[in-house]
Specification:
Elements: E1 5-10, E2 13-18, H1 29-43, E3 50-55, H2 66-71, H3 80-99, E4 104-108, E5 111-113, H4 115-122, E6 125-129, E7 133-135, H5 146-152, H6 158-167, E8 171-172, H7 173-179, E9 184-186, H8 191-203, H9 207-221, H10 225-240, H11 243-253
Parallel strand pairs: 2-3, 3-4, 4-6, 5-7, 6-9
Antiparallel strand pairs: 1-2, 7-8
Helix pairs in contact: 1-3, 4-5, 9-10
């Protein structure tokens, strides 16, 4: 049996691939475990400076594994404990992505539905193929996408998020870009290269600065204005004390390439 999740490293970029294409890469219990293990390993891997997350086959991710969830109903409690554990596990994976030191770029082809759309919204950036579709469509089967809503409402305007959540309608890649769910839309044949190019651009920057910046990005978003400025001012002051930052500024002023030790 092939691995549920594969990892390939090249030039400071780790590419993670959800690898159950025959089922449209659902976020089963096992897939979530594999993702969590990969994220934990990446958090400690200073050689990797960016991450691309993609799905094998014709879809990015169809969301939770409904067959697995239905089977859980056979438990004496009707599945209540299993459902709580599943959503807690999924929430931990999503939180781990935002806390990962490296920026994570979703490479989206085909379908990104329900928790799959949540995964796109959780990633720091996203590149989509022109044929990609996005939806939080659980309401169509009587299950409101409450946990996907957390990431979605932090990406796109509230009224548009609410419409998607309550109608279950899908949006195309162009609309997803208009709303801010994805950064770039490219022809399908160029999708992999576009995601890797964006990752390479990030990986080419001073890693310590990007790591400091990503952490502060999410921290300040949860603060009031004054607290956010106080916090980020302290973050920038600490960043300025880094030897490689001093070298980067000196190189800019002297009009030469930086010699980062990093």
């Amino acid at each position: 049996m092939e691995e549920l999740l594969t990892r390939e490293d090249a030039a400071g970029v780790a590419t993670l691939t959800l690898n159950r294409p025959e089922r449209l890469n659902p976020l089963s219990d096992a897939m979530l475990d594999a993702l969590q293990d990969a994220l934990d390993a990446l958090a400690a891997d200073t050689a990797m400076r960016a991450v691309v997350l993609r799905g094998a086959g014709r879809a990015f991710c169809a969301g939770h594994d409904l067959r697995e969830m239905s089977a859980a109903r056979q438990a004496p409690d009707g599945g209540a404990e299993a459902f709580r554990a599943l959503f807690a596990k999924c929430s931990k994976v999503m939180t781990s992505i935002t806390r990962l030191p490296q920026p994570v770029i979703a490479q989206v082809q085909g379908l990104a539905a329900a928790a799959g759309c949540q995964l796109v919204a959780t990633c720091d950036m996203a590149v989509a193929g022109q044929e990609a579709r996005f939806g939080v469509n659980g309401v169509n089967i009587g299950l409101f996408c409450s946990t996907p809503m957390v990431a979605l409402t932090r990406n796109i305007p509230a009224k548009h998020a609410f419409e998607m959540l309550t109608t279950g309608a899908f949006i195309d890649a162009a609309r997803a870009r208009e709303l801010g769910l994805v950064n770039r839309v490219v022809p399908e044949a160029e999708l992999g290269a576009a995601a890797q190019d964006l990752a390479a651009s990030v990986a080419g920057k001073l890693a310590t600065a990007v790591r400091i910046g990503k952490r502060a990005f999410y921290e300040q978003a949860e603060m009031g204005l004054r607290q956010a400025y106080a916090h980020t001012g302290e973050v920038m002051a600490l960043n300025m004390m880094d030897d490689d930052t001093a070298e980067g500024i000196a190189a800019f002023l002297e009009k030469r390439p930086a010699r980062w030790q990093g």
